[in-house]
Amino acid sequence: MKMRYVVALVCLLSAGTLLAQAPQEKIDSTAISRIRDEGMNRSQVMDIISYLSDVYGPRLTGSPGFDRAAAWAEKTLSSWGIENVHQENWGPFGRSWSLKHYAANVLGPQVFPLISYPKAWSPAVSGTMDIVYFDAKTDSEVELYTGKLHGKAVLFEELRDIKAHFEPEATRDADSTLLKLANAAGTMFRGRRGMFGAEDRARTLVNFHKWQLCQKEGAAVILTEGRMGDGGNIFVQQVSIPQHPDSSMQRRVNPWQAEAPKIIPQIAVGAEHYNRLVRMIRKGEHPRLDVELEVAVNRADSTFNIIGEIPGSDLKDEIVMIGGHFDSWHGGTGATDNGTGSAVCMEAMRILKTLGLHPRRTIRIGLWSGEEQGLLGSAAYVKQHFGERSGSMFDSTSKITLKPEAENFSVYFNHDNGSGKIRGVYMQGNEATRPIFRAWLAPFADLGASTLTPNNTGGTDHGSFDAIGLPGFQFIQDPLEYETRTHHSTMDVYDRVQQDDLKQGAVIMASFAYDAAMRDGKFPRKPAPRPRPVQGPGQ
What we know:
The chain has 539 residues and is α/β, with parallel strands linked by helices. The chain contains 14 helices and 18 strands. It folds into two domains: 27-93 and 301-518, 3-Layer(aba) Sandwich (Aminopeptidase); 101-186 and 196-296, 3-Layer(bba) Sandwich (Glucose Oxidase, domain 1), CATH 3.50.30.30. Strand 16, helix 11 and strand 17 (451-453) form a beta-alpha-beta unit. The chain is elongated.
């Protein structure tokens, strides 16, 4: 028996057992059929993503690019008849950053343009300078570079061995992968204690001392190789600020914060060009870097989320939310991270409004800023409207304080794992959702969406809701080439977006929003966790 039939059988048996134990979830099959027809045959999702990525481009939080794209999104939502479209400010955020001009060339016996990209919040730098390879793996080796770094372009990292690509970069979830998710016992998040060993700390400490010497000496610019990627693709995020390995995460300063210290200009270099420069220097060559980096850094006291609504009818005070983060990194155009999620949610709202459906509950869209800086926008929204947790969600002693608005909150659905089609839902450990999601997914089994897993998934905006006990969910999506090619890279562009997958995603998002808005009751919440007993000595 092929695996896909095993998956189907397991799903059917699970569905049959659960439906026998729970009341049948009511579905408006006519409305769902209309949603599917509109979304699959008259979709505007690719036009939306083209505007976001091609026309407006990268949307770094707090930047003018974010503001311009947000103004377009607000105008577009309003043109469809979405109501109460507005910006909700949050902050303070810190400093905005945008790229004005960049060019880099290597000079020497051979001249070539350097495949590279500036890091966000890098200061400007201009001029021609020698390139030095900071080849130090111990503190004693670090000291050998004293007096050799002033005014230099410093190659900071070791070479990375680059392999041929024998495995496909793009994949879809295999039936075996989905079966493993479906059969999971439920995975709770755990901290990273014990993951940082003595060797890791020693290596990190040497790097810290390297950074300190670069700052003390007055290096002109730091050149680093991306954490992954090759073939001209560069994975690039924000500049580094030297941090001692023993400093707590809570006390670390981020480069966008107003109190950030003086930062050395920093550029991410394509792996092959980085390696070539190191090899040239090791063979006695003396390449020079000619660089022109112009940036704009402005004070951004606050930034904002984008909110809009389709008002409900008899249960209009109750809220169903859909959303994804609107911000992106700056290297590409923010197409798959997260133009796709923003476009899916905007298209879902367009579908619902175009069809003239009248939900009982209000359906609200949230397009978040600050996700790439740690879920800042959605966390601020949740805190302002619904409540907050006194400490980390991993801390069993932390307390949740809910606001009155939380009583009328039903559920939030998030889209933020790239362009891949929806294959199911992470239930976040909430077993009460299983028969509901099973019924809601049934009309889309032929589109590949049928898997439910009790597992949690994290790292995106549904976590801001889940952290205070409100139902918040992220879909299981095919990975495609999200991690291997597009995620936070210079190739996060429109051409990597898969049209049919996005159409399917928008249809399912619109259907889930409508199903949730039409239920007789609000969405079930997880039981409050029981406090852990305090154990005395010897227990």
